[in-house]
Design a protein that fits this description.
By secondary structure, the chain is an all-beta fold. It has strands at residues 2-7, 10-13, 18-26, 31-39, 46-52, 57-59, 67-72, 77-82, 91-99, 104-107, 111-116. Strands 2, 4, 5, 6, 9, 10 and 11 form a 7-stranded mixed sheet that branches.
Length: 117
């Protein structure tokens, strides 16, 4: 099993920055990819950014050039640096880990990001 705990959410003005952190524990060897999703009220959860165990990344078009996902394998951490934040970025952000070994997808409980105008 894998446990994920997010931190770093909060209230920020438009144009500001936040860095989200996700700490993974448990059977870390089984994780093939990690990512960040977000969900605003009344909307579907959507992929924001993802990173594979080999370091390959991809981003939603809406955040390209503003957000950066990174991974620290030694510390079992994944980060999301969010710059030039916009009110439409307001959502609960969830850390995700995928395990091909166990055929499982794991989720953190989420951290709220609120961007004021």
């Amino acid at each position: 099993q894998v446990q994920l705990v997010e931190s770093g959410g909060g209230l920020v003005q438009g144009g500001g920055s936040l860095r989200l952190s996700c700490a993974a524990s448990g059977t870390i060897f089984s994780i093939n990819a990690m990512g960040w999703y977000r969900q605003a009220p009344g909307k579907q959860r959507e992929l924001v950014a993802a990173i594979t165990s080999g370091g390959s990344t991809n981003y939603a078009d809406s955040v390209k050039g503003r957000f950066t996902i990174s991974r620290d394998n030694a510390e079992n951490m994944v980060y999301l640096q969010m710059n030039s934040l916009k009110p439409e970025d307001t959502a609960v952000y969830y850390c995700n880990a995928d395990s091909h070994y166990y055929g499982m997808r794991y989720w953190g409980k989420g951290t709220l990001v609120t961007v004021s105008s």
